[in-house]
Amino acid sequence: MTSTEVLPRTALLSLTTAAFVTVLTEALPAGVLPGMSAGLGVGESAAGQAVTVYALGTALTAIPLAAATATWSRKRLLLAGVAGFAVANTVTALSADYVLTMAARFVAGVAAGVVWALLAGYARRLAPAHLQGKAIAIVMTGIPLALSLGIPAGTFLGGLLGWRSAFGVMSAIAVVLLAWITTAVPDQPGQARGRVPVLRTLAVPGVVPVLVVTLVFVLAHTVLYTYVATFLAHAGMGDAVDVVLLVFGVASMAGIWVVGAWIDRALRPLMILSTILVAVAAALLAAFSGSHVLVYAAVTLWGLGWGGVPTLLQTAAGNAGGEAADNAQAMLVTLWNAAMAAGGVAGGVLLDAAGPMSFPWTLLLLLLPVLAVVAGARRHGFR
What we know:
This protein is mainly α.
């Protein structure tokens, strides 16, 4: 077997670690919130804005930075993004000032925008054409790993040694990752001058359907996922949140494995199947929340369906974007983070107005247009 027929796994695993660091940096404050609140001398609601500020940093800068750095070599840009994590997490670990900490979190969000816009495209370029989807799936494994293993580990470390130690470890991981990328990841060129401008990418056939699906699917998922503890408490499972999230994480890993095995041959059927699985899960949670067994079954289906969605959407955006693939990825990252922020706000409004049982119904309702757009984008978008 020639070198063009295999995946560069060492390089791809370093990108997986970059995805892991990105997600863990974003979500870690949720696991150490009480200690972070006390350490900064603010309330928990104020400390919780560390997640919001991070998302804003990503959403506001991903597209402008993609345009400004389009001609940079990909490796140089990736190293800059990871270095941003190292600096931001170090400042967060050492800072006793709330404003400085929020500024560091914004910088971390900017770094995330840089890294997220790069990862899928970089993975595609490192892999032979017939294995590009599988390469992206390997990199996206960093997401459920961070959520199912990284957050619990960071929370445990924060409780054992203090919340600052958790961010300090994140800085150390970022420094090690810088060395790993430097030695193991081949460089790739940026765009040649004169390529498609960022906003003109919207005119490329297939890009808009992928972005619409990203926005609505992530919004739907976030409405329930953000308030899953509240929903479970209402269902009489408030003491099983950690177990439920573990089941979701394991099922997500299985979903990524399935997508990685088949995405290069069946992207469209996998996207339809993923949407249906999450919709069935939402219907089960809406109709049978009183049955603990069916709740676990629904969460398993939810994880199986959702686990591969980031890989499917990143691959679809890259395929549709063509020469403007990096621009399409930057737009996807922006809409993804905007949908996460909107999902948190919408969930709060729904909770006050209609109660926690409105979450699965909302998820189910929003997935109907998602399924319609995926089904309609047969020629472009979800081929």
